[in-house]
Please model this.
Amino acid sequence: MAEQRRQTGGAVLAAGLLVCACATGCSSASVAADAHTGESAADPVRTMRRAADALVAAGTSQARTAMETASGGTRVTIRGEGAYDYRRQRGRLTLILPQDPADAPGRLPITELLSPGALFMKNRGAGVPADKWVRVETATVSDGSLVTGGATDPLTAAEVLRGTRTATYAGREEVAGVAVRHFRGVADLALAARSVPAAGGAALRASLTAAARGFATAEVPFDAYLDDQGRLRKLRQRFSFVNGRRKGAVAVSSTTLLFAFGTPVTVPLPRAGDIYAGRVAEPD
Model:
């Protein structure tokens, strides 16, 4: 029963986070415009589908995230910063919620620990003791925790690109002073779930499968920026998220910036005694 309460409460908590905050190929001209793009410009779909592999090869990085929701004419952005270990599929992010004018002292940052199959959240949830974590099974929430945690797991974001159906090369640009290749395309969550490698990919596959079933549409338009080593430096994805409290879908834009590859990253997970087993109240 305690485990059931944890999963139910965690799913409610994650679903409430955003609510409370609220033709394959490229043109010949593009290829000719940049002689240094090689295969990536000639076959952008294949390049996108390999993006997650390049991050795993890189090992680790620091990350900044921004998630913007648009609903009823209101736009709200949640920002995060932290680091990620792509080989162990673990990361740590500190999220800053928008300031609520009604909150005199302001909101405490939310700490998130990302791990295969589970998201741990601290300083989030009415009635949760300050020293406790809430565990959310990512396959139990309707979006696979791609958006309701307030930030998209960097590796999961890259794994979505395995489902790329169409992509074009948009030319050379710069991101944070680094030369990058810009690609635009559309990925399919169901295809991404089927394309996750068997080795170590069970949790990622389950999350993407949940998202493919739970989002308003399985199609994910994206803009991806890769450096000359094939590593994602910036990824912007647009999701259509079904808000359980309101009719219709909410437009969600998730942006992930990756830098300082090779940074040492250690993410210890909470002990069993540090995880809250009670019911988590849904935010108003």
